[in-house]
């Protein structure tokens, strides 16, 4: 089989794949970490936290602090993230045209929380492409990447075989989950290192939605 006939469905990650939000999340978290006395660069924040579910991020932060996070940390981070999102969140260049021309069932599968995902899709203008029944977030699914179960459960909800699905990911936790799920995995502008990409045996890498291979 060739082209779209090769797959039964396409499962898209959100951050760094559909919307250009990774930089925003990094900036917001950097500001919040500095506010509680953690000296770390934005580059280090990106390397440490990108692709992880929020509960795992909290665990890492508490390890850094050597104690539970302060009560105000969550509110500060949420406010900073939402401010930056409403200010500058946009869809990835060219992704709307890809979604509009896709003749396969598709969904978004993300480590975001439910309301956070809804806000990202609304602000970026991608909400019409993803009705609620095609949104699979870590909060709703009860599992997060790198656990492959989030993708397997999403496929089950869609009534398709995960082994017949195509997954589009960028982060190492996401790529790890995708490969372990049994699906075909393509990396879009991967944040993972070349060594990680090679170790995971990613099926295809592309860097621009205008080069969408399907």
UniProtKB/TrEMBL annotation:
Cofactor(s) needed by this chain: Mg(2+)
Pfam families in the record: Hydrolase
Family the entry assigns: Belongs to the HAD-like hydrolase superfamily. CbbY/CbbZ/Gph/YieH family.
Gene3D superfamilies membership: HAD superfamily/HAD-like, Putative phosphatase, domain 2
GO molecular function: hydrolase activity
Classification via SUPFAM superfamilies: HAD-like
TM annotation in the entry: none
Keywords from the UniProt entry: Hydrolase, Magnesium, Metal-binding
Name this polypeptide is given: HAD family hydrolase
InterPro entries registered for this protein in UniProt: Beta-PGM-like, HAD-like_sf, HAD-SF_hydro_IA, HAD_sf, PGP-like_dom2
Entry superkingdom: Bacteria
PANTHER family, alphabetized: 6-PHOSPHOGLUCONATE PHOSPHATASE (PTHR46193)
């Amino acid at each position: 089989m060739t082209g779209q006939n090769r797959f039964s469905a396409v499962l898209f990650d959100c951050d760094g794949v559909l919307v250009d939000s990774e930089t925003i999340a990094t900036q917001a978290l950097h500001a919040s970490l500095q506010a509680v006395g953690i000296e770390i660069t934005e580059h280090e924040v990106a390397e440490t936290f990108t692709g992880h579910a929020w509960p795992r991020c909290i665990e890492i932060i508490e390890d850094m602090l050597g104690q539970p996070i302060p009560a105000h940390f969550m509110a500060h981070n949420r406010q900073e993230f939402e401010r930056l999102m409403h200010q500058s969140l946009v869809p990835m260049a060219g992704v709307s045209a890809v979604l509009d021309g896709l003749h396969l069932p598709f969904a978004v599968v993300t480590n975001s929380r439910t309301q956070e995902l809804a806000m990202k899709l609304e602000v970026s203008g991608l909400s019409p492409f993803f009705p609620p029944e095609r949104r699979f977030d870590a909060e709703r699914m009860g599992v997060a990447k790198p656990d492959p179960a989030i993708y397997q459960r999403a496929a089950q909800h869609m009534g398709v075989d995960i082994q017949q699905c195509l997954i589009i990911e960028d982060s190492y936790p996401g790529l790890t989950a995708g490969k372990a799920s049994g699906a075909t995995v393509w990396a879009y502008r991967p944040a993972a290192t070349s060594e990680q990409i090679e170790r995971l045996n990613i099926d295809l890498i592309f860097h621009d939605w205008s080069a969408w291979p399907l």
